[in-house]
Amino acid sequence: MSGEPGRAAVTPPAVDEDLADLLGVAQSVAEESRSFLTTITEVGAGTNPEAAIPLLLLAVSDVLAVGARLGAIVDVVPPDRYEPDIGPDPDVDPLRVALANVLEGIDEYAEVVDPVLGAELTGSTLSGELVAIAGALVQGLRHHEQGQELEALWWWQFSYLSSWGERASSVLRVLQVVLGHLRLDVEDDVAAEAEYDALQP
Questions:
Q1: Residue 109 belongs to what H/E stretch?
Q2: Which residues are registered as beta bridge partners of 108?
Q3: What's the distance, CA 112 to chain centroid?
Q4: What is the gyration radius of the CA atoms in the chain, in angstroms?
Q5: Which of 33, 98, 121, 176 sits CB 3.0–4.6 Å from 44 for a disulfide?
């Protein structure tokens, strides 16, 4: 029999399943946040302008999917009453300018301010909204990288519900519309030729 005589075996404390689930969500959001930031940075660099809209469409769709989990889970309560200081916000304006250059001609769009409360319209830009989403994700990511997982999750959830979730949804719709125009708005003779070729055995 192993162990010292007279000493009971020590049972490790049970893992809090709810906490483990929350930490798993936080890890997923952190991974998608990094992926989103990488994609929009690459698009802003202009290395592959032909793929800019499809890449942005994929990135926004992915981050909205993980955002939906934030909206579906219970309200996250961080251990500290006040948000820990993580230093000054990063300067994201160069990224906004870079994206605006890549998206020149299709950057501006109109959106409904609050479709539930009325039909008031406002103007917006893809570049501005993408960078606003990035800023919210970065804020949580900085907490996460300092080991403040629940604080990061609280911030991601709060900012998803209050700002970046709605912004991302608007951006996604605009990107889908733009992609549809780019793929479907063709000259009649080009469309007729494509239809003719498709019907040939």
A1: strand 108-112
A2: 125
A3: 20
A4: 23
A5: 98
